[in-house]
Amino acid sequence: xxxEIRLAGSGGQGIILAxxxxxxxxxxxxxxxxxxxxxxxxxxxxxxxxxxxxISDSEIYFPEVRSPDILLTLTQDSYDTFIKHIKLTTLxxxxxxxxxxxxxxxxxxxxxxxxxxxxxxxxxxxxxIVALGIISGLTxxxxxxxxxxxxxxxxxxxxxxxxxxxxMGYKIGIGGKNG
Amino acid sequence: MGKNKVIVNKDYCKGxxxxxxxxxxxxxxIGEDFKVExxxxxxxxxxxxxxxxxxxxxxxxxxxxxx
Amino acid sequence: xxxRLMSGNEAVAIGAIKAGCRFFAGYPITPSTDLAxxxxxxxxxxxxxxxxxxxxxxxxxxxIGASLTGSKAMTATSGPGFSLMQEGIGFASFxxxxxxxVDVQRVGPSTGIPTYPSQGDIMQARWGTHxxxxxxxxxxxxxxxxxxxxxxxxxFSEKYRVPVIFISDEVIGHMREKITVDDSHVVFERKKPxxxxxxxxxxxxxxxxxxxANFGEGxxxxxxxxxxxxxxxxxxxxxxxxxxMERLQRKILNHLDEIFLYETFLxxxxxxxxxxxxxxxxxxxxxxxxxxxxxxxxxxxxxxTIWPSSEKVLKDLASNRRVFVxxxxxxxxxxxxxRIVKKKVEFYGKENGEIISPEEIESCILKSL
Amino acid sequence: xxxxxxxxxLRVKKLPHIWCAGCGNGIVLSAILRAIERSxxxxxxxxxxSGIGCAGRSSGYVNFNTLHTxxxxxLAFATGxxxxxxxxxxxxxxxxxxxxxxxxxxxxxxxxRNIDLSVIVFNNFVYGMTGGQLSPTTPEDSFTTTTPYGHIxxxxxxxxxxxxxxxxxxxxETIGNPLMLEKYILNGLLHKGFSLIEAVSSCVTEFGRRNNxxxxxxxxxxxxxxxxxFSKVNSVESHDGIVVGEFVNIEKPEFVTSYYELVxxxxx
Lengths: 179, 67, 369, 268
Description:
The complex is a heterotetramer of chains A (about 180), B (about 70), C (about 375) and D (about 270).
Chain A: E1 2-10, H1 15-29, E2 33-38, E3 48-56, E4 70-73, H2 76-82, E5 91-95, E6 108-111, H3 113-121, H4 127-139, H5 144-154, H6 159-178
Helix pairs in contact in A: 1-4, 1-5, 3-4, 3-6, 4-6, 5-6
Chain B: E1 3-8, H1 18-22, E2 28-30, E3 36-38, H2 49-53, E4 59-65
Antiparallel strand pairs in B: 1-4, 2-3
Chain C: E1 2-7, H1 8-18, E2 21-26, H2 33-45, E3 49-52, H3 56-68, E4 72-77, H4 79-94, E5 99-105, H5 122-127, E6 136-138, H6 143-160, E7 163-169, H7 170-174, E8 176-181, E9 222-224, H8 238-253, H9 256-259, E10 262-265, E11 272-275, H10 278-293, E12 298-303, E13 305-307, H11 311-318, E14 322-327, H12 333-341, E15 345-349, H13 358-368
Parallel strand pairs in C: 2-3, 2-4, 4-5, 5-7, 6-7, 11-12, 11-14, 14-15
Antiparallel strand pairs in C: 1-8, 6-13, 10-12
């Protein structure tokens, strides 16, 4: 079983950090084989930001994500760009705060990620953590426990707030799966 | 009071003549072998200018050697 | 024992510190910069020295100087900087000063595409500097191997008094995988002279690898990039020059058993042998699994030691097999493979910033059938 | 006489040296060795680093830890040595081309760091080893093998550049006054920080021959006569001659010391 995940948004939304947290959770705590990679250079500074995580039960050879199984898009730009590289089954997680126009024919899962972040931590930047919760709740590709441990391990300040954001995301993720 | 001694190492000397020009008592000359030679060493005042200016480590002046 | 998720560049930095590296001089260049950044954090913590030099010419000079005081020293760069370092690499080869040079490859020539991978420096690693110099070049294909192999790089460098080029690429350098950071690696320490100081010959030809004294310990020896005799002083005597050249080759080539590292993957029953290394070997493995599903018996030979190569190993593996070489350049290592196997070798390569994918490898092999 | 050069500090088996008859480099090296003798520095701790060119050959003749590096790179190698082992006294012998042309960037940055290196530049206005081509310090209108119609550029002022870059000890003297040269080198050796001593030397064979200075003795006298004391003009530069003297002698934080103070703070 191999899952390819692409996280996308704009520089400054914490996309790279989210991908590292996801990879760490899945590899260190869930004990899966994981490979994380990201876009370097100018693209990481304000333009579209992209990071990929591959999670697998067996050894991962080819390091690139070509058509992700899961695509998270936190901006319209990133949505428009990366739906060009998906397959029919790709599960697309969308933040309705920034992504207003979606292709209805696709497998979209629309959540108010930024709003939840603002309500939970009063900080827009927490939307990446909310998104991780959603990925866990909706897809089960990474466990909530693993993400919780990773956040505890990673943050010096605001651990509690971030865990709250994670749980809120997880809850609506579960809800999204059922609804 | 001993004599001053100008020791020339002919293996190192390339005969450039700088020492000849800086010697205040003019006791040095370039010999037929194109190396420096000391004439009238007894006139040497032991100032050491030749040693100081020699680019080839070829001269050492020993001051006041008692014979 | 601690499991950690980290990038290839980070693994090299952490491994280098554990291998005893105490000096780093470098100049920022993508995609190697984060390695320098990591060293700037780690080295002061262990009492080592980090310096950002004014350019790569300065960086390579500084690590050679540091190594002469007994410090294990490293620099990291990428294509354009690697080009500038070549004169220093030649110096270190000829005067037998242990250093480790990390080259995280990006697309070239010239400034190329800074953030995209390539394997265009394979020949530069071997022949970038002029003259018939010895060199060892190692190339990992995972984060874990980056960690393990940097120990090997330092050990070979110290043991054989040779610059070791640690080749990586943008993908291996930047991707993150899980590794275990432990203290299980063997660390080789430089051989010191045991003779009386006045008898010391820094290039003593009675040894394959003469012991190297540290500056400051009273040996007062001379090091030059000029052709030199056993004492270290310049000579233009052809006999002495030849003796030195011969020993420099011998000290490496006589130890291929130890130096030549490689991996094979599903070769036992293979009719087709793929030769690839670094990131492309990962694509090859995936392609091999796919091709085997289709009933084709394909295997992989992945040189980890890129230079020098072992003729025996490759000849044996290539006999009775069709040989394909895949590399992210327009044909570099393939020349070495052709030289050794002395038969038709099929080649596919590109240097456009994209990794050669498993599908490309598959289709290339399927088309050739 | 004066301070006698200890034969122990010379590799006598390597003499006579390769420099031409009357070459000023020997006078400079002799001044360096006298200064080292007077400094009482532990000889085993001295690392004598040089570059490529005539001046670069000096490391082969002195009996210390010696390193004959690449063209232009002695300061880079020296930086690594000093930073890796601060107990070593690192002396750099370089030429005008080595230091100010191909090694110009290392020169500026080593001075800027104020790293504790003692740099003696043998400035003879020309590339001697390669047969007399123009160097950064070749005077305007003079003739070299690559300026057969006369040089059209103004020469670079090495001391001035050192001062601008941040060197904390800068002095210039010619081979016309070896005693003062020795004194400045000694000051440089004892100075903590980047010291640059510009030793104005002669190249009889390649520069002198083409510029009416073919006689070694006259060349030395010429440099002496052209010397203008710094105290007289209060400037590092003069169109009438060669300004000599101690230009800068100040205290500033030294790079290697500052680095290891930082290490003390962060070391685990």
